[in-house]
């Protein structure tokens, strides 16, 4: 019995050593060699989920992402600290493979595990955009920017939001959902954005930030009211639509409009000149619960 325990402990130690070697090789972008180290580690310690994750990650980085799915599924099927990261990587694999429905499911699972993981929020927005779910994508980008407001990715997200406001939709690629196949609820939500901003081109505002504030308030209100009447898709209705509808009814929309557009000089200047309003928005975010 003691011999068995000693052998098991030795195998675990050897597996950890192999994983460290694999990580070093992966850092050097020697993914094929890294993959072999992780496979060897798993032969010694089949329950080592860190090896499962690192193997899947190296497969993804070497353009063999789908081969890593079984290893990630193994992680997601048990309670462990890597579960959120595994769902996030699954989302990336599915996204790269244009399996947008599966990527959306993985992103939602990752968000539920870690509400502050910005990349999962961004993934949800992107895969929704690729399915022409414009309302889901729009609110997803807003949610992402709340967590990561001042990066190149947030500036890109704001650009995507502007594209949606202006009526833009991605042209379906081969294998993607065609516009006529969009379900009624999604189509109604898409139209809610169109209707919300229909008359803004005829109005005049003192600044681009004021215009964005008005547009966002109208969009959040239209989507929120409509989502309340719909059934299904609880994640979107509760976590996104209901939350941003509450925000639209608060006095914090001017600050939020500048936050999401902070990549523009005008909004960056406004933020510096209105510290109290930014603090009020931050407090609202901290104190307002988001359900699923």
What is the strand and helix layout of this fold?
Elements: H1 2-27, H2 31-44, H3 49-61, H4 69-76, H5 83-96, H6 100-113, H7 118-130, H8 134-147, H9 152-165, H10 184-196, H11 208-229, H12 234-248, H13 253-260, H14 265-273, H15 275-287
Give a concise summary.
This protein has helices spanning 2-27, 31-44, 49-61, 69-76, 83-96, 100-113, 118-130, 134-147, 152-165, 184-196, 208-229, 234-248, 253-260, 265-273, 275-287. With 292 residues, the chain is mainly alpha-helical. The protein has a domain at 8-90: Serine Threonine Protein Phosphatase 5, Tetratricopeptide repeat.
* Structure classification: mainly alpha
How many helical stretches? 15
Fraction of residues in H or I helices: over 70%
What is the CATH topology classification name of the domain at 8-90? Serine Threonine Protein Phosphatase 5, Tetratricopeptide repeat
What is the first-to-last residue Cα distance?
48 Å
**CATH level 1 name of the domain at 8-90:** Mainly Alpha
CATH homologous superfamily descriptor of the domain at 8-90: Tetratricopeptide repeat domain
Radius of gyration: 22 Å
Apparent shape:
elongated
Give the beta-strand count. 0
Query: What ranges have pLDDT less than 50 throughout 5 or more consecutive residues?
Result: 177-181
Assembly type of the chains comes to single chain
CATH architecture label name of the domain at 8-90: Alpha Horseshoe
Mean pLDDT: 91
What amount of the residues lies in strands?
Answer: under 5%
Question: How would a crystallographer describe the biggest sheet?
Answer: none
Q: What is the succession of H and E elements?
A: HHHHHHHHHHHHHHH
